[in-house]
């Protein structure tokens, strides 16, 4: 039972230590300066244990284990040194009820801001009701303490009481494992960590395509109907403008000069206008936004009898 109790104590200690070290990584500067001096009180519960072999000669030897309760009080001069007193009650330990009053000194060593190991040395008077005699003995203890707030702590500990006197003139050692809570007076309120969601508005640069012109004239060589390099360069600008401005439309007008016959000129001007329209559609412009017409040489752009390079062209008007 002793081994089991000590194993439980070790496991609890490891769990508290691991959590405390993780939490301590986020301790702010304000808590580092908290003065840990002052009066404190505490309470706990645990198990008292004696070697059952030592009880074998007693009348109705009873059990070597008993539930224990603990009340404590003390004063810490600083975070490392203080005085303490305690009262422990153990029911039916070796057919006896034990009352233990202790006075001693207590020391703390802090691994982190909140986690410490403590040690105790003191003197204990044991008042027994039953098969165990009253006695005066020395006591020692160790444990781990974790500070939940500036005022409240939790701890696990082990106390050792030497030479508990049995009624048959024998001695035995008393062991106690326990868990408890303490409250220290006069400590400042623990700062509350407040998480506030802040909406950050990020300015994103938006590229705006502005229309530099609304009229494009794309010239052709005699007999040419396909879009040439100069035409593609200008039509790319037309396509970008229309895509960036959904409210705009484009009128496409095919022309020729007056060199050929009326039938040939009509066919060529239509082919030129259709080629331009298809190029814009292939580059993302909806066909419903395009109006396609061809006028051959019947509506010239110039007054030089319709035989200039500019007459062999497709005119694109954005509106």
Automatic annotation (TrEMBL):
GO process terms (BP): monoatomic ion transport
Predominant cellular place of this UniProt entry's protein: membrane
Keyword Ribosomal protein applies: no
All copies of domain OmpA-like, residue ranges: 207-319
Protein name as it appears in the record: OmpA-like domain-containing protein
PROSITE patterns, per database record: OMPA_2 (PS51123)
CDD domains named among the record's database cross-references: OmpA_C-like
Annotated localization: Cell outer membrane
Cellular compartments per GO CC: cell outer membrane; pore complex
Residues of the signal peptide: 1-22
UniProt keyword terms in alphabetical order: Cell outer membrane, Ion transport, Membrane, Porin, Signal, Transmembrane, Transmembrane beta strand, Transport
GO molecular function: porin activity
Keyword Ion transport on entry: yes
One of the Pfam families matching this protein, by short name: OmpA
């Amino acid at each position: 039972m002793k081994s089991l109790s000590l194993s439980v104590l070790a496991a609890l200690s490891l769990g508290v230590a691991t959590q405390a070290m993780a939490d301590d990584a986020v301790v702010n500067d304000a808590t580092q300066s908290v003065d840990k001096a002052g009066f404190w009180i505490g309470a706990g519960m645990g198990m008292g244990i004696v070697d059952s072999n030592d009880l074998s000669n007693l009348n109705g030897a009873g059990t070597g284990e008993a539930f224990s309760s603990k009340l404590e009080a003390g004063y810490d001069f600083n975070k490392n040194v203080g005085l303490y007193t305690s009262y422990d009650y153990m029911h039916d330990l070796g057919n006896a009820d034990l009352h233990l009053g202790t006075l001693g000194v207590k020391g703390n060593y802090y691994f982190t801001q909140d986690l410490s190991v403590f040690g105790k040395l003191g003197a204990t008077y044991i008042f027994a009701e039953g098969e165990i005699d009253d006695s005066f003995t020395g006591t020692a203890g160790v444990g781990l303490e974790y500070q939940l707030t500036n005022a409240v702590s939790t701890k696990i500990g082990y106390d050792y009481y030497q030479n508990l006197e049995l009624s048959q003139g024998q001695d035995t050692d008393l062991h106690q494992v326990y868990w408890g809570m303490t409250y220290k007076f006069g400590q400042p309120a623990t700062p509350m960590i407040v998480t506030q969601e802040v909406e950050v508005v990020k300015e994103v640069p938006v590229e705006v395509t502005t229309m530099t012109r609304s009229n494009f004239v794309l010239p052709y060589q005699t007999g040419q109907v396909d879009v040439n390099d100069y035409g593609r360069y200008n039509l790319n600008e037309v396509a970008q403008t229309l895509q960036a401005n959904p409210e705009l439309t484009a009128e496409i007008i095919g022309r020729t000069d007056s060199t050929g016959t009326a039938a040939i000129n009509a066919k060529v001007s239509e082919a030129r206008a259709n080629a331009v329209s298809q190029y814009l559609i292939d580059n993302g412009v909806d066909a419903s936004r395009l109006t396609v017409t061809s006028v051959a040489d019947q509506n010239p752009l110039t007054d030089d009898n319709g035989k200039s390079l500019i007459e062999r062209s497709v005119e694109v008007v954005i509106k």
